[in-house]
Amino acid sequence: MDRTMKLDAIDPQWAWEPWEPTAVESWDTARIAALYRRAAFCASPKDIQAAQTREPQEVVDGLFAEHPQHAQFEEESSQITSAVRASGDIQQLSTWWLHRMLLHPQPLVEKLTLFWHGHFATGAEKVQDVELMLQQNQLLREHALGDFRTMVHGIAKDPAMLIYLDSVTNRKAHANENFARELMELFCLGEGNYTEQDVQELARCFTGWEIRRKQFRFNRYQHDGEAKHVLGKQVEAGEEAIDQVLSSKHLPYFITYKLFKFFVCDEPSPPRALLEPLARQFASDNLSLRGTLRTMLGSRLLMSNWSAGRKVRSPVEMAVGMLRSLAGTTNLIELSRQLREVGQAVFFPPNVKGWDGGRAWVNSSTLVGRANLVHHIVRDENTRFAGGELSDMLRSYDATQPEKMLTWIAERFLAVPLSTQQSQTLLASLEDKPAKQASRELLSLLAALPQFHLA
Amino acid sequence: MHTRSQFLSIICFATSLSCAWPTFTLVAQERGGLTQAPSVDGGLASLLPASTVAYAEFSSADVLLDHPLRTTIQQSPEFLKIWRSPDVLKARGGITLAETALGDSLENIVRKLTHGGLALGVDSQHNGIVVIARAESAEWLQDYLERLVELAKKNDGQAVETGEYRGVTAYKTKQAVVATVDEYLFVSDKKELGKLIVDRYLDKATRGLSENANFAKAMAAQPTSDATTFAWGYADVQKLREAGLAKHALNGPSDNFGAELILGGVLETLRDTPVITAAWTVEDHATQLTFSAPHTEPIDDRREYFFGPDGQGHALPLLQSDSTLASLSAYRDVSQLWLRAGDLFNEKVNDELAQADNTLTTLFSGRDFGEEILGALQPEMRLVVERTTFAEGAPIPAIRLPGFALVTQLREPEVMRGELKRIFQSLIGFLNVAGAQNGQPQLDMNMETTDSGQFITAQYVPEVDRKHNADAPIQFNFSPSLAFVNDHAILSSTIPLSKQLALQLAQPATTTTRGATTANTLLEIDIHGIQAALQDNRGQLIAQNMLEKGHSRQEAEAEIDTLLAILPLFERLAMQLGFDEQAELTIKLQIAK
Hints:
heterodimer, A: mainly alpha, two-stranded antiparallel ribbon, B: 593 residues, alpha+beta, 21-stranded antiparallel sheet, disordered N terminus
């Protein structure tokens, strides 16, 4: 497919058909890496190795399947969860999640949880409660691949969300419109697909919904029992009103649009016609996410050369992706602090709209910050690759010389190839340096190039 | 003198020989006609010039290598695990190769090389360092060095220049010069200094460093050495001060309130003393390090808070609880320190203290914090830290913090009891209001009078459905308490600790008697207790290790378990700081039996 083809020229039926290898587009290391860049936080060397022996659509299916090491990982992670919970330290939450993103055997779930965290954005600096933030995060994770309807119902009664939206109290005498507005504008329908009257009526449905002692409570004495009309239908209870919002014809387009922007391409915005097959599938699946996501991630559009480099990596995707692709581990407390510096502290989104994403991640100042972030990771004495030195890890893949190191890393981590001149400049600066130093410096140098920041 | 030893330095030296030989520089041969070893009558120190500013001597490494602790460590499962780990096996492979080339084990080389002791000197005139070792025999030393030079040459072909000085063959590399004469090995980073040492040896010089008046005084003041002393050191602080070392720390206003409170007296001593000496003794079940520095000037008034009037400020005996982790007792007139802050601290600290003074004065019902509140406390302070235990059925926090109690005596008990009681109540009220705003557990207050004293206590109330919670919030480590026993006040983080201490203080025993010790500061740490407290939090430590070091759970467990296994090798760490005619700091590490 022509890489320069515009989105509105792409045939929607063709776009969402499962991708198959062709004479031009083969199922090789670079393509496996490309799939994992989008669907996970990059492929680990083991992921690549395993995928090479399987059919492309089998590998996509594998991303959705529970990994054999799932239970073991969850047991390990629960030890950290207990420690974070016991510490009560709100900053430690980011560290806990980074650990999951980096080491979870089914990274698609963590990547989707990150997506939903940006979608149902809730900031820990306001909630100030580790337990409630963890509870919300688990809710998002539990339904990340599942039923959107259940997730929205859960979020509507989630203490962290209601605290964040100043909605711990909602009295019939003065209905709080915050959650009602965000439910339609940010969470389900998007701007222009509801009226101000709908917001006011929906807010009345949520009267009596309160948070007391960190738990949801329905105060029947504060519920407005009068007739309410939301999106053209009379509704009574809050739950019924949520179902009415979820039944809107705009919802499947809004959600698939956001998923498209997150997984496929930052810009331009996809035409409605391109999203139509996905939206139809999402609606016919009764708002179950799994099928639609499976279609999107295994699609011709996402897996073809067309999509390469059409996403700007968020700081988390960049840092975690780099480590995952090199079997790396590091000081996650320090990494969490560094990510905060470059604008993506998970659990601390900038506002209720979440992170803007796309081009907003890069400007002259953040580019320097992002390069510094990579430099910090590489320089940190706790950073190890496959438990040791990066050069040793690369040697195990026969990448002993700087040129081979560069090829090995670029094939797995970069969505857009380096120019000959870029490669030569990089290699010249590594000349005569010992392998240990050269390999780490190579990562720092790569971070200064634009390709490093694209997915 | 030459019966004293070297130990730590010997190990370091030997390590450098084995690990860094590609760059090792110095080797020496016995000079041609010298067969009779000249005597070193004045000890190894006599070979060093009078301009030496720091000197240390050590006895044979046998003292350490034959210590029972070594066997205990070597037999411990954690050591064996590390010893057999791939990284160590790799390093051991390298050592074995070197041992083969040298014809002896590293341990034997260390033993033989340090057989007659080792000395280390830093010379101000040449700005250089010299190491002198007295080996088992001239023949062995000669053979060993020849093998070492060969090995160094084979390893990286680095140039080892050979020269001769007064008939002594010397070797030179980029880093050092080495020569041997008889059974003595001389190593220096400065060629001229190396020559000077050889001269002094060949010329049978007897005085050397002992010509230095400060060194002579230090030698005279040291206790008679015995078989347990394996290291002794000396530093000419006067010269180091004159060279501008730590000028700001010793003379300028302090920028750290805590450091001044803990170490103010030590800094005062360092400002005036001409020398510091250190002695290290090793016994089967303890090792002790003692630093001494004579006072030569009258104590500065500004630090009377530390030394007491006429230098007579002494700590009270240490207090203990059933499961003490650490106990501290010190003489510190905190009120005087607070009021003298203008003389002792820089502007920034003074501004912060002025701000704190205002806040605390408000908190203490408008009473002047420095003058009236701190001034109401006697200068003898005691602190006890213990491993917290929890009653059966009580909520147990996921992170178990140690309890602590501050014990002091009140100058005007009748007045201050009521005042402190009100402040404590206000504080608990404040914590409850702040906690309620954040959904935190609430404190329930009580008052109780027993035979031992009066207690004002507060306990966190468990949530209705979480009484037997084994994963309770961190707050459940605390049950704050204020107790009054005779003229003592005990401010404790837990009720059981305050009750235990109250029982002790109610007894007419030496624990409350002034003059029972002559130390200014006493500290004891129960290492077994520390290990148990860490064990209580093993899960948390492992999780923290995983996040901080990027370790897998297995790696984190191995690291934490190694730490937990090493600690019980030691039983107790004690520190004592005393000031009479000389400041003396003693640190004693008791090894587990």
